[in-house]
Amino acid sequence: MTDSDKKTLFINDIEVEFDKEKTILEVAKKAGIEIPTFCYRPDLTQFGACRMCVVEIEKRGIQASCTMPPEAGLRVYTNTKKVRKIRKTILELLLARHDRECTMCSKSGSCELQKYSQEYGVTNISFEKIKEEDLLPIDTSSYSIQRDMNKCILCGACVRACHEFQGLGVLDFYNRGYKAKVQTMANKNMFDVDCVNCGQCASVCPTGALTVKSNIDCVYDFLGDREIKTAIQFAPSVRVALGEMFGLKAGENSVKKMYAAARKLGFDLVFDTNFSADLTIMEEANEFVQRVVKNENLPIFTSCCPAWVRYMELKHPDMLNHLSTAKSPQEMLSSTIKEFVPKFYEGVTKENLKVVSVMPCSAKKYEAKREELNGQTDVVLTTVEFAKMIQAEGIDFKNLKEEEANSPFGGYSGGATIFGASGGVAEAAVRTAYNMITGKDLENLDIVPLRGVDAASRSKEAVLDIQGKKVKIRVVSTLIEAEKAVREVKEGKADFQMLEVMACPGGCINGAGQPISCKDSKIKEERMEGLYKEDKSLPIRNSHDNPEIKKLYKEFLETPGSKLAHHLLHTTYSDKRKGSYLDLK
Predict the structure, then answer these.
(1) Number of domains in the chain
(2) Which of 138, 225, 415, 568 has its CA 20 to 30 A from that of 46?
(3) Which residues are catalytic?
């Protein structure tokens, strides 16, 4: 671009260049100028509902910066007296209809309404406060999500997330004017609708209207009981996000500090879900190879994401034979710990052992309750919940001395680490499937076309040559993309042999249990880069080369797909359309 092609406008009398930015809000963000907003989320369509982002434009008056396109020569002012007055009035109106019991709200300290109210000095509200008898009941029916519509500010972010990411429409607007509200169909409980528990609605919610349910108290009960032995496991993507809660950069790997923190909290045994990610690959890759040989039930669908599994059971039960029967890494490790840890640790029995998992995902809370999985995972904490426990204990996480996980069932490969990013499961599976078929490792282990977390990367493909046969892998994130792929299979148009699906945009790094990243898309990229950096740095990058995996098969499981392996590490699925969530009651 030449100097004559450059386009500029002025924000607070500072000349700012713009190029591909679609709105004034984006131009301001690029220039490092924050404009407050509730409804704006860069990964969702622009809505312009909250009006907190208003700015004053010379000769144009007051405009919403999240929908106003930039024009050369515009003079924009973000904090004039008129702008501040409008924003303060908006905050007062929202607070008047808001249940302001902030001290008991799980979003206290991270609530955007609370943040802006403090910044704009809202101490008195001119409007009548909502009456106690008008408060709506709190919906705690779901295993994953809590819904408190008394804290809803009608920003519409949850509605758009459910529609645009998952294509489900579980939440939507009802009524008009002052009676407008966000609710489920027929105002049913979350437990009784076709919610898949992905939690993306809670991820984008700026207040405490939608939150991921907490299981912290249950974990403290385990830790406080001397008769109980506690084991904890950490999912791959937690290691590159947890540190954000303690001042570390997004993507910085804090896994060995996590091990140390868990022991300081009182956990008896510390394991890494990465180990069972390798185990998942052994079982899933073997299953894939068998299906290719027999030419049946192809393409194989990955089964690590419980929201995706739930979606298939609700929307496409006639396609369940395509799902891999391999359990998720969370459930594989819980089963392995319950079955084999008592053989290695004195005083530990199946009866007194409780397994706690730390996951990036709200749907993992639902998964742990699935009847088919026999309650092997006792409690699921999110990344944020585990961070809160560390904070409550007064642990200086940033300066913790690094420690190792317990062994066996703690060692892992680089292929396991990349499970946390969209494309990672398929990449790890292909590395091992190629070895199972050819007896050799891929010349280049980095399958770059399957990587990426931006909106353009929500559907990716790679083609590999395996002994002269072309094998195509498709990777999608968000269920709206998954639906397109399933439709291709149903219509006989699919030309791929493996389909990896993650319900959250970008994969587990952007799960609903992670620190909030919905206002900055770069955070997802940094978390992804952190995972691939560890993959590159580890001496073992293939799941089939993990010595602890080899030992487990040699001493107990024999081979992938063996009778014992199938009993411990595989599961079944069923049509859930009629019962909806009633199958869990």
Answers:
(1) 3
(2) 138
(3) 284, 287, 304, 324, 364, 367, 372, 508
